[in-house]
Write a structure and sequence with these properties.
Strand order of the largest sheet: 1-2-3-4-5-6-7-8
Largest sheet: 8 strands, parallel
Order of helices and strands: EHHHEHEHEHEHEHEHHEHHH
Helix content: 40-55%
CATH architecture: Alpha-Beta Barrel
Radius of gyration: 18 Å
Structural class: alpha/beta
CATH topology: TIM Barrel
Bound molecules: hypoxanthine, zinc ion
Length: 328
């Protein structure tokens, strides 16, 4: 079976970051919103580095102003994921962008996103779950309000809590209150670390926030004792190689540490992060990994099993997904 049509599980996708540029331009035009300087001459997103990327991301997100906009975005993103064989995806959702952290407005956005997701599940068989995500550079106070939104809506659809944004802004320990609140509400936890922060940022996510998965986490490779700890404790890394290469963290795919981490027994999974920003898709990730590391179907099978185990959905959903992976 070709890698493109293999059923895939994606655990790390920013919903706004998955918006195709044409979708953002279309909404901007409909609403007469001016978003200068975020596209290049070919119409792709244009940014200089990670910090500029965050600015462009927020500018693109500024065209999404209503629950209906998010419903349309969800439909567009899930259709694209399904076209690349994705059968299950977890997406980061931020009450900062969806209703300004007001619980009642957040519920309206969530309702619209869920309706769109249920329609996609009926038509394409793709299953979506949400991970509520404060934005680190917005600060710990806003993260507390975000955690309240998350706790109020925790359940079958909102199953996780995370943190994204500028990994160098503030300290993770200042977000412990928000993560404690989310954990008490029954949410599963992940945090972006070990991408722009070094190994210590991964230790902080584990020790201060007590997460079970790490978004990226790849810079753990710089600290052998940390690699051993990740392997021993079964911490799952949401690795996004194409994102790391596009943002210049590693010069080429062959320089990416995902294979070294896997060889040392760390549980790795594969995701796209913000696919149109990084000119990637899940099938491109698979193809490039196969090419760079000579990965065969057995390796992808192992990664898919790890991803399913680490997914933040309930046991019945996992059982259904497992059958779909097995009957490919
Ligand atoms: N990394 C961190 N924060 C983000 C990203 C990302 O790729 N996309 C949107 N917020
Ligand atoms: Zn990310």
């Amino acid at each position: 079976m070709s890698l493109a049509t293999r059923p895939k599980i994606e655990l790390h996708l920013h919903l706004e970051g998955a918006a195709p540029p044409a979708f953002v331009r279309g909404l901007a035009k409909e609403k007469s919103i001016d978003i200068p300087g975020i596209f290049d001459e070919r119409g792709h997103y244009a940014y200089a580095d990670f910090w500029d990327f965050l600015k462009v991301y927020e500018a693109a997100t500024s065209v999404l102003r209503t629950p209906e906009d998010y419903a349309r975005l969800t439909s567009a993103v899930l259709a694209e994921c399904a076209a690349h064989g994705v059968i299950y995806v977890e997406t980061f959702l931020s009450p900062d962008f969806c209703g300004g952290r007001d619980v009642s407005a957040w519920r309206d956005y969530l309702h619209a996103i869920r309706e769109a997701a249920e329609a996609a599940e009926r038509s394409d068989g793709i299953v979506l779950r949400g991970i509520v995500t404060p934005i680190r550079h917005f600060g710990p106070d806003k993260a507390k309000e975000t955690a309240l939104c998350a706790a109020e809506t925790a359940g079958e659809f909102i199953t996780g809590f995370g943190i994204g944004g500028d990994e160098k802004a503030g300290h993770l320990k200042d977000f412990a209150w928000a993560f404690d609140m989310a954990r008490e509400a029954g949410l599963r936890l992940t945090a972006h670390a070990g991408e722009w922060g070094g190994p210590q940022s991964v230790r902080d996510a584990l020790d201060r926030l007590r997460v079970e998965r790490i978004g990226h986490g790849v810079r753990a490779i710089e600290d052998p004792a940390l690699v051993d700890r990740l392997a021993e404790d079964g911490i799952v890394l949401e690795v996004c190689p194409g994102s790391n290469v596009a943002l210049g963290l590693y010069p080429t795919w062959r320089d990416h540490p995902v294979e070294k981490l896997r060889a040392k027994g760390v549980k790795v999974t594969v995701s796209t992060d913000d696919p149109p920003f990084f000119h990637t898709t899940m099938s491109r990730e698979y193809d490039r990994l196969a090419e760079a590391f000579d990965w065969d179907e057995g390796v992808f099978e192992e990664i898919e099993r790890t991803s399913l185990d680490a997914a933040f959905c309930d046991a019945a959903t996992k059982e259904t997904l497992k059958k779909r992976l097995e009957t490919r």
